[in-house]
Amino acid sequence: MVKVAIHQPNYFPWIGYFDKMIKCDRFILLDEVQLSDNDYMHRNRLLDINGNIKFITIPFEKKGYMNFKYKDIRINNGIEWQKRILAFLEGNYKKAPFYNEVMNLLVPINEKKYTYLFDAVLDSIELLMTTFEIKTHILFQSEMEYNNKAKKGDLVITLCKSCGADIYLSGIGAADYMNIEQFRNNHILVEFQEVNVLKYSQINTDNFMQGISILDMLFNCGVEKSKELFWLTQKEGVQI
């Protein structure tokens, strides 16, 4: 049985993104969809020193961007976004126990010159996959044979069928509007992801903030402890 999950590329995603990834055999990245400016396809959330949620962001060229596929959107390199992100991390995570370890980890992305948004976002995902030793096979929408006129649920089904999926792993948030019968008619079972709660000590707040970039856990716990906690969550909810 082949289990598949499908997701937009996210910049330095949260832990649930990788939780979904390791629960499937193939993880499809949607690189031919439109960019959603309100989502995490070019940004993600971290905490400032006062415990407020702030975004680290890759600026993109907005003129006509809705007419482009995600993989073809260019970064606005007129803005020194890498320096801005580095300044944010230094200003808000300098006192984190594993600040130096994580900043060294980020050097390749912080120093590389990028033209396309997707390349920078993909590098952030692959860096974290390597860090957490995630071996799930990644497929790119643009490299698959599928009905490129399909939208929403039909797009999910045609992508699943393209890679031989028997099971589609969906986020729990889609349960209210998914047409499960449509998947059954195409001989695809639907499972919903359950993400165990993982709490750890955050330097910037006493009230745990969930759902932010996994970088926060790395800064607070370090690579080895973060890996240990991440894989433990596959068995049970963990609180430390």
Feature tags:
about 240 residues; alpha/beta; two-stranded antiparallel sheet; about 35% helix; globular
Order of helices and strands: EHEEEHHHHEHEHEEHE
Oligomeric category: single chain
What does the radius of gyration come to?
18 Å
Count of β-strands: 9
Helical proportion, percent range: 25-40%
Roughly what fraction of the amino acids lie in strands?
5-15%
Spatial sequence of strands, sheet with the most strands: 5-2-1-6-7
Which whole number gives the mean pLDDT?
A: 94
Annotation field: number of helices: 8
Based on CA inertia axes, which overall geometry fits? globular
Strand pairing plus helix content: what structural class?
alpha/beta
Biggest sheet descriptor: 5 strands, parallel
Distance between the termini: 35 Å
Low-confidence stretches: 236-240
Describe this structure in words.
With 240 residues, the chain is of the alpha/beta class. It is 35% helix and 15% strand. The protein has helices at residues 15-22, 81-93, 99-105, 107-111, 117-131, 152-162, 180-185, 215-232, and strands at 3-7, 26-29, 43-47, 53-57, 137-140, 167-170, 189-192, 198-199, 238-239. Strands 5-2-1-6-7 form a five-stranded parallel beta sheet. It has a two-stranded antiparallel ribbon with strand order 3-4. It is globular, with a radius of gyration of 18 Å. The two termini are 35 Å apart. The model is unreliable at 236-240 (pLDDT under 50).
